[in-house]
């Protein structure tokens, strides 16, 4: 028994398949893909529904437009590159040794599956799983398994479904295939037609020496290919693992729902690829191509790497809702960074904290309600400027708390922005102040507490703080913090003590 | 001579058709509470503010409502728990919170905004944002305490919050074991509140008339659902507590 065993995955009409992979709504529609310079575009790929309607390869755009119901899409090299990466990623789950065997508009990969029986079972099982995996990724492929590299490649290209060629029966498996299965020149094809050779079986039956005498050394290779005995040195490629999906819209899209429809499918694919390597998505970067050539970037950083597609889609929806594109969208690119799946050891006595993934969605929703910069954790600035702080993203990080105050402290309630007031002074101390129409009598004033800083820069400050006890005309007493801005010479009601 | 237990059993059997278990005291449910960090208030509330319920801290300005709430949050964050402050009037002061012992890293601050940008604008937008934010936080779960700060809101406006909203908050707080503290000038949640703590105006303490070093506050238990007030009590239970200014240093013993 031969120690070699190959499985060839053949995705015919790859330009059409690559475009339809993310558009599940179009998969049952007749689709033709156009390629070529403007006004000379021809059909380069189509699906079976389009073939039934009478569309053929090489048809001009004008002719294709005449077929009722036929949808025309533009070929996209970027979409095909992304789809090819996905195809390669799926194939890599079955074997690390893969050789590229693409030809024309088809995409073909040959996998060296020798020695995988213990992992995936007999070749029939492997071929079925391979085809199912490809179907889940959105590709319709044919699979052929053979001990001969070229036999597997030729058979997968010429037939649909799954074909298993038993060892030693390559010639019989290939004999009925048309001679066009070989990459012959036009001249040689005509020669064989004149000789009446139409199938590989007929070519394999010709005497080798006589054939080489008439058609040259290449004829020996064709005969070996037709016989299923051609030798091949396997040249594996090194697939790079990059989580990237791209989609080019045929018409500019303005509605977020349409974008999310495609985005959901892209996230599905990214998650499936990451999960295949026991990874999760640590971050998502979205590049939204806009009309006019501009790009609108967005980023999603979950608190912990996640493989939950619904959660990631929700974050995408909220992010797009918070930062909607300012023009119609022509393309969508999603790139993801893979991270280790989150593992958290929970304790029976550990304090209850928000679940990270739910918290991410909650924070995104809160930001949509009150604004991006108004949700988070306050962090005190390292300065003596009164009331100075900045907002940072809220992250659940429970650590031993700082030593707390031994006695309750009087708290301030800030007035934002500080309210300008008119103050009545007596012997340099405030005795009353007026806030719009109301006058407040100051019963006690403590101060002034002078602070200043950053005098060397534009945002310097020089203030006098007064803690005052005031009473309104109806007798309500309260404590407040008044500030005299000495740089602008104005009084402000800064806060209330509460 | 029958024993007391046998006698009680006989009486209970006789009255069974009218009063089930007539002489057996009803089992008392123990409700979980969290200390506020102010001993006098904890004694008043029999342990602290309830967990998984709505508590209201009410009173006018400078009545110690915010100081008490921050002391409560300091206790919760010290226990390693996460809290949230939904700020309708954007009045929260991080410096005061830090001085009170609140671990700011464990505090989520939601600052409602006035979309019109006018100081005199109607508060409906901010109020709506605050209620939606509180709803989201309660549904998310995991927050030990959420403060809904309606402290600067006029009662005429805050009273318009439907009772159904408070009822929903109460249910969500119960389900997620979260203490929802509502800070306001008066009580708004009505029957949905488990505890209403009324803060009274203050008495300042100063040193030599030059430095303000603290305040004395009065807290009154207005309503406590789990501990019904005795009908014979004429006045609600009251206690006094004090808070020092942030600049007041610890005095040597």
General description of the model:
The complex is a heterodimer of chains A (498) and B (253). By secondary structure, chain A is an alpha+beta fold. Chain A has 15 helices and 20 strands. In chain A, the strands form 5 sheets. Chain A has a 6-stranded antiparallel β-barrel. In chain A, strands 5-6-1-7-8 form a 5-stranded mixed β-sheet. A 4-stranded antiparallel β-sheet of chain A has the order 9-12-10-11. Chain B is of the alpha/beta class. An 8-stranded mixed β-sheet of chain B has the order 5-4-6-7-3-8-9-10, sandwiched between helices. Chain B has a two-stranded antiparallel sheet with strand order 1-2. At the A-B interface, helix 15, strand 13, strand 15, strand 19 and strand 20 of A face helix 3, helix 4, strand 5, helix 5 and strand 8 of B.
Largest sheet of chain B: 8 strands, mixed
Determine the number of helices of chain B (DSSP H or I, runs of at least 4 residues). 7
What is the averaged pLDDT score of chain A? 89
Shape of chain B: globular
H/E element sequence of chain B = HEHEEHEHEHEHHEEEE
Number of contiguous helices of chain A = 15
- Radius of gyration of chain B over all CA atoms, rounded: 22 Å
Total beta strands of chain B: 10
Percent strand of chain A = 25-35%
Terminal-residue CA separation of chain B: 63 Å
Helix content of chain A: 25-40%
Strand content of chain B: 25-35%
pLDDT under 50 segments of chain B (min length 5)? none
Q: What oligomeric state do these chains adopt?
A: heterodimer
User: Rough shape of chain A?
Assistant: elongated
Report Rg of chain A.
36 Å
Low-pLDDT residue intervals, each spanning 5 or more residues of chain A: none
Provide the descriptors you would attach to this structure in a database record.
heterodimer; A: 498 residues; alpha+beta; six-stranded antiparallel β-barrel; B: two-stranded antiparallel ribbon
What is the gist of this entry?
The complex is a heterodimer of chains A (498) and B (253). Chain A is α+β, with helices and mostly antiparallel strands.
């Amino acid at each position: 028994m031969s120690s070699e065993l190959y499985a060839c995955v053949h995705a015919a009409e790859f330009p059409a398949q690559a475009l339809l992979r993310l558009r599940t709504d179009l998969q049952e529609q007749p689709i033709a893909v156009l390629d070529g310079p403007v006004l000379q575009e021809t059909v380069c790929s189509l699906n079976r529904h389009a073939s039934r309607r009478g569309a053929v390869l090489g048809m001009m755009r004008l002719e294709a437009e005449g077929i009722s119901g036929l949808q025309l899409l533009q070929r996209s090299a970027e979409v095909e590159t992304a789809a090819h990466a996905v195809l390669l990623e799926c194939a890599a789950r079955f074997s690390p040794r893969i050789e590229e065997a693409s030809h024309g508009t088809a995409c073909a990969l040959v996998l060296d599956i020798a020695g995988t029986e213990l992992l995936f079972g007999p070749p029939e099982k492997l071929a079925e799983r391979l085809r199912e995996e490809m179907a889940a990724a959105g590709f319709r492929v044919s699979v052929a398994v053979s001990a001969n590299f070229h036999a597997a490649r030729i058979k997968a290209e010429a037939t649909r479904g799954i074909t298993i060629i038993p060892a030693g029966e390559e010639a019989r498996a290939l004999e009925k295939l048309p001679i066009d299965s070989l990459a012959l020149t036009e001249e040689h094809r005509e020669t064989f037609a004149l000789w009446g050779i139409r199938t590989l079986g007929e070519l394999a039956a010709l005497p080798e020496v006589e054939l080489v005498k008439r058609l040259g050394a290449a004829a020996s290779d064709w005969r070996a290919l037709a016989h299923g005995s051609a030798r091949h040195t396997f040249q594996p490629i090194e697939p790079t693992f990059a989580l990237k999906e791209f989609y080019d819209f045929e018409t500019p899209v303005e509605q977020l729902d349409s974008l999310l429809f495609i985005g959901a499918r892209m996230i599905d694919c990214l998650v499936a690829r990451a999960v295949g390597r026991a990874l999760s998505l640590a971050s998502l970067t979205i590049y939204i191509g806009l009309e006019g050539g501009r790009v609108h970037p967005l980023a999603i950083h979950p608190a912990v790497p996640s493989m939950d597609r619904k959660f990631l889609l929700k974050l995408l929806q909220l992010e797009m809702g918070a930062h909607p594109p300012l023009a119609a969208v022509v393309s969508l690119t999603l790139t993801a960074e893979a991270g280790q799946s989150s593992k958290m050891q929970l304790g029976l006595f550990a304090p209850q904290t928000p679940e990270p993934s739910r918290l991410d969605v909650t924070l995104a929703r809160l930001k949509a309600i009150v604004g991006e910069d108004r949700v988070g954790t306050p962090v005190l600035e390292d300065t003596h400027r009164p009331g100075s702080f900045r907002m940072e993203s809220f992250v659940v990080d429970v650590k031993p708390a700082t030593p707390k105050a031994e006695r309750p402290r009087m708290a301030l309630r800030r007035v934002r922005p500080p309210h300008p007031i008119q103050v009545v002074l007596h012997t340099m101390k405030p005795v009353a102040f007026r806030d719009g129409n109301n006058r407040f009598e100051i019963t006690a004033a403590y101060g002034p507490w002078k602070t200043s800083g950053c005098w060397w820069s534009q945002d310097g400050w020089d203030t006098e703080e007064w803690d005052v006890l005031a009473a309104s005309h109806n007798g309500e007493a309260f404590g407040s913090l008044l500030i005299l801005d000495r740089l602008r010479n104005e009084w402000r009601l800064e806060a209330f003590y509460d | 001579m029958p024993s007391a237990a046998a006698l009680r059993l006989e009486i209970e059997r006789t009255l069974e058709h009218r009063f089930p278990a007539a002489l057996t005291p009803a089992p008392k449910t123990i409700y979980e509470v969290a200390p506020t960090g102010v001993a006098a208030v904890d004694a008043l509330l029999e342990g602290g503010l309830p967990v998984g319920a709505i508590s209201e801290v009410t009173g006018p300005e400078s009545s110690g409502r915010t100081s008490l709430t921050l002391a409560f949050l300091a206790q919760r964050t010290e226990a390693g728990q996460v809290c949230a402050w939904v700020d309708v009037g954007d009045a929260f002061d991080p410096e005061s919170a830090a001085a009170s012992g609140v671990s700011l890293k464990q505090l989520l601050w939601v600052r409602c905004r006035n979309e019109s940008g006018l100081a005199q604008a109607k508060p409906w937008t901010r109020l709506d944002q605050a209620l939606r934010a509180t709803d989201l936080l309660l549904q998310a779960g995991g927050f030990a305490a959420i403060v809904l700060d309606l402290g600067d809101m006029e009662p005429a406006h805050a009273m318009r919050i439907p009772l159904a909203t408070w009822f929903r908050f109460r249910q969500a707080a119960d389900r997620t074991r979260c203490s929802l503290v509502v800070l306001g000038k008066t009580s708004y949640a009505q029957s949905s509140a488990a505890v209403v703590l009324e803060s009274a105006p203050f008495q300042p303490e100063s040193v030599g008339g030059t430095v303000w070093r603290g305040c004395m506050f009065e807290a009154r238990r207005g309503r406590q659902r789990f501990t019904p007030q005795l009908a014979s009590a004429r006045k609600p239970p009251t206690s006094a507590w004090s808070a020092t200014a942030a600049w007041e240093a610890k005095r040597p013993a």
